[in-house]
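User: Could you check the structure of this?
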Amino acid sequence: MIEVHGLTKRYGGALAVDGLSFTVRPGQVTGFLGPNGSGKSTTLRMILGLDAPTGGRATVNGRPYAALRHPLREVGALLDATAVHPARSARHHLLALAVSNGLGARRVREVLALTGLEPVARRRAGRFSLGMKQRLGVAAALLGDPGVLLLDEPVNGLDPEGVRWIRTLLRELAAEGRTVLLSSHLLSETALTADHLVVIGRGRLVADCSTAGFLAEHAPTDVLVRCARPAELAHLLRAGGAVQVREEPDGSLAVAGPEPAAIGELAAAHGIGVHELTVRQASLERAFMDATGGSVEYRARSGKRTA
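Assistant: Sure, the predicted structure tokens are below.
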């Protein structure tokens, strides 16, 4: 497991991480989300011993990362896919990492095949596209066959096939009982991949719950209703105890609470013709914006640009 207890980090007078505590458990993919400037990268760096915390602690399998004798065999990490010597081939980059942790060349061949880099194994990394560098970074993270994985924006630069590949890979690794922490700004992909979410804002914990629970709390499912007499149906729904009935600009209704069948039956009982009843699933983007709206550090103004 990854355990974070009261983790705090100050840079001079700036508080980047503020008493953060959470646990990343095995057997599931945990999404690590937060707006820019929320402290995600700083937290990951402290877990991996790259930054020293001002207070609190972070451990992997009960020990600080620096205390791990062969860290690649316990923790695989991808923080910056471009952090590769451009003159080294993919194979030599992985071989150097393997030797440092007592791993053999056979494992290098295995991860090159697993990440689809076998055909370009002898090509210099400086000639790789960003997507290929991401695959190389994932290969390095998997090199020691670790039980714990921390990946920061692993789908950045990948094509659709690559995005699907990394999603499938992470879910398979979690199904094997490994601990997977995934940090990403691509919320639609996180919704498909993550079973659990840890959401932070301004260095503090905002949510630590299942993905389904987070969606239910911050972006509940509703029913889109198009009918002949929307104002009348809206009145009937409110009188019947609907949690929310919102009249949309196009004349449709957004209804939370009643099931579609109940809405249709109510409309039929009062002779109101219904043209559409569509269940709208909540999006992670909507839930994330609702949960972190007060924690956004950089907010652009809407409207047209003036000269």
